[in-house]
Specification:
718 residues; ATP-binding; 4-stranded antiparallel β-sheet; alpha+beta; XPB/Ssl2_N
Length: 718
């Protein structure tokens, strides 16, 4: 049962705070709003606390680590008993102690530390009631007790990892009198190592190599890989003995011989006791970094917005062509998952590099513009054989049909919204020995935090080429999300891939954050990226892209040119009468006899088609285009396929006689039943297809005599 204090605290939270807590803790309740009991249960789970800690900045994690370390000093290490969780209230520490540990007596720094504690309280990582005591969950104690970079107490390390002979040897090395037993010798050694005056006197005699090593360990971390201690036995003992001259680092042997380095419980690893570290530091202070690193000496970024606007314009037509290609020919899904590589390469022709196409396919899928469709496999000839599982293909969804009617700027809105919260870095592939595939179903829980941290780092360097300074980006991003920024070569590759994605989307330009980038960052800061991002993205994208063109320039070589992005209706009209040939700053359609005939096949009349083209033309239509449409119109529809089983009618008797004797049409079983009427043994669709394949141009007619507009059926994914 949740505590009364926790329930009382939850009632004081604003709805938007609870909503953000639910999003960060991945709380989903079907069919109703989450109750306070749901939130209380959420905050009791270790995996949720780990997720919430992933949203902490560096000073917030440092504050949690200080609380856990103080609690361990006051109440001892937390027991590893997962069956009986300790009461968090029993491990509380004073807020004043925490502030002093983080900031000393520096009032400005204490204010920063106080603000970090308040933020932790709002994120439910400091448990209520909040006041003069700081209470955190046992999970935080287990994982952050050593977050200050200080080692364990000397008494703990000596008692756990030394036998009696080693304790007596250490007492002798420190110049202590011989004790009657192990316990007395251990008390004497611990008293020496915990006495700052005697420690300082000992360190004054230390060689320079030992003091340099000691200073580094005291400030950078207590563990050192060294061979100064060897296991005391052969069969899994946890006791160690001093091994003289086993250290490879200068000064380590001198420190290990006198107990300033002690066994850490791991072979070939030594640990600096906390008392020694405090003596070297001069005071007990936790590392506290209230502000992110500042960019210094970065080159200026000139004309940030134009490259981003160009990238957004390119992205708009790339998406249009890519989705049209998916609608024309579905993408095959491999049995092992992901889109077949040959399909990705097919789409990439004339659009972009395969890597970019893979990136765009991922965003379109996550934006709901693409989906999976199962295609049942053919049943085996042998009835006893097992029916193979269905294959899957990728097709546009019904949302794609609505998307086509949007202006170019509005088409980019769902894509940017999907990228902001995408739990993957599509341009990064985890296995360098494998060929990357699209829609592989990868899930990276750190991707959104990495994206947010990088955008914060870029925002701190306005009008500067921050991408030219990878060390700054890594350091600043780590400050914002220290638990989520990967280290090492793989981490650097993921950061580089995220920046390339941002450049392709217009989020950064010339290495600096654009207006669109600031908008995406604000959405992630406020949590609106998971709720209603469209309202913020739409005006920014509209300002980035010029308004769509509503007119075209028709040329005597039978081409139509649109200088810029065409409006959806204009593009649909030109695609009806022509074939789209090229993209870029200008879009070109090629009009031919076949394309005009295709338009008339779809039910358009020559006069109507000409009037619609004149309405969108910049000036008069060229005569060759008018002659072409009229000539095709005169020959089109001279025979009519009637929907009655079916019939073919035409006023041209010679044409019907030609059809009856045409070899390619023998399969239709055509028979002349009147001078102007033929009947076919095949249905109307098959008859129309056969006639067109033979080079004729029939039109479909209803029972009433009206010409029907043929709309090809489009398969759509759910």
């Amino acid at each position: 049962m949740p505590s009364d204090a926790l329930m009382a605290w939850l009632t004081t939270r604003a709805p938007e705070q609870l909503a953000l807590l639910a999003d960060r803790g991945a709380l989903r309740v079907r069919g109703r709003e989450p109750s306070l009991e749901d939130y209380a249960h959420l905050l009791s789970q270790d995996h949720v606390l780990a997720r919430l800690m992933g949203f902490c900045t560096l000073p917030e994690l440092q504050a949690l680590g200080a609380i856990a370390w103080l609690s361990a000093q006051r109440h001892g290490p937390i027991p590893d008993d997962y069956w009986r969780a300790p009461d968090p209230d029993e491990r509380a520490v004073s807020r004043a102690e925490v502030l002093t540990l983080l900031a000393g007596q520096d009032q400005d720094l204490r204010a920063e530390a106080q603000a970090a504690l308040e933020r932790l309280a709002d994120q439910a990582l400091l448990q209520p009631p909040h006041g003069e005591r700081c209470v955190v969950a046992p999970y935080i104690h287990r994982n952050l007790a050593d977050g200050m970079g200080l080692g364990r107490p000397a008494a703990h390390l000596i008692a756990r990892y030394f036998n009696a002979p080693e304790v007596h040897r250490l007492a002798a090395a420190l110049g202590l009198d011989k004790a009657p037993g192990r316990e007395a010798a251990e008390r004497n050694v611990v008293a020496f190592l915990t006495d700052p005056e005697r420690l300082h006197a000992l360190l004054a005699k230390a060689p320079a190599t030992a003091t340099e090593l000691l200073d580094r360990l005291a400030h950078e971390g207590p563990l050192l890989e060294v061979r100064s201690f060897q296991p005391a036995g052969l069969y899994g003992t946890n006791k160690y003995v001093y091994f003289a001259d086993g250290a490879e680092q200068a000064g380590a042997d001198w420190l290990a011989a006198r107990g300033l380095l002690l066994p850490a419980g791991v072979p070939q690893v030594a640990e600096l006791p906390v008392e020694v570290a405090i003596a070297v530091r001069g005071e007990l202070r936790a590392t506290f970094t209230p502000h992110p690193p500042q960019p210094r000496d970065l080159p200026r970024a000139e004309n940030i917005e134009p490259p981003a606007e160009a990238a957004a314009g390119t992205l708009a037509w790339q998406l249009e062509r890519l989705l049209a290609g998916c609608a024309e020919q579905p993408l095959t899904v491999r049995k092992s998952g992901g889109v077949a590589i040959r399909d990705t390469k097919r789409l990439a022709k004339g659009i972009a590099e395969p890597e970019t196409v893979r990136f765009l396919l991922e965003l379109c899928f996550r934006a709901g513009l693409l989906g999976l469709v199962a295609e049942p496999a053919e049943p085996p000839a042998n009835r006893r054989a097992k029916v193979p599982p269905p294959a899957h293909v990728v097709l546009p969804t019904r949302a794609y049909d609505r998307w086509l009617s949007y202006a170019p700027a509005q088409r980019l809105v769902p894509i940017l919204a999907a990228w902001a919260v995408c739990r993957d870095i599509p341009l990064w592939w985890p296995d360098p020995d494998q060929t990357p595939v699209a829609l592989a179903g990868l899930d990276d829980s750190d991707a959104v935090s990495l994206r947010y941290a990088l955008l914060e780092a870029l925002a701190a360097a306005p009008a500067q080429r921050a991408t030219d300074a990878p060390p700054y980006l890594v350091a600043a991003a780590t400050w914002h999300r220290p638990a989520r920024i990967p280290q090492g070569p793989a981490g650097a590759q993921r950061i580089e891939a995220t920046l390339r994605e941002a450049a392709l989307l217009g989020v950064i330009g010339q290495g600096a954050l654009t207006r669109l980038g600031h908008t995406v960052l604000d959405l992630l800061r406020t949590g609106q990226a998971w709720k209603t991002p469209n309202a913020a993205l739409s005006p920014v994208l509209t300002a980035m892209l010029p308004p769509p063109r509503t007119t075209a320039r028709f040329q005597t070589d039978l081409t139509a040119v649109v200088a810029g992005a065409p409006e959806a209706k204009l593009a649909a009209l030109l695609s009806t009468v022509g074939v789209r040939e090229s993209e870029g700053h200008a879009v070109v359609w090629r009009i031919s006899h076949a394309s005009v005939r295709h338009a008339l096949d779809a039910g358009h009349k020559p006069d109507t088609l000409l009037s619609r083209l004149r309405a969108v033309a910049e000036g008069d239509l060229p005569q060759p285009l008018e002659y072409l449409i009229k000539d095709v119109g005169r020959t089109h529809g001279r025979m009519r396929v009637v929907r009655s089983g079916c019939c073919i009618r035409s006023d041209d008797e010679a044409l019907l006689d030609e059809l009856v004797h045409a070899k390619p049409l023998r399969a239709l079983g055509l028979r002349l039943i009147a001078p102007t009427v033929l009947i076919s043994a095949s249905p109307e669709r098959e008859t129309m297809t056969a006639l067109r394949a033979a080079g004729y141009a029939p039109a479909l007619e209803a029972e009433t005599g009206a010409t029907l507009v043929e709309k090809p059926s489009a398969r759509r994914a759910p």
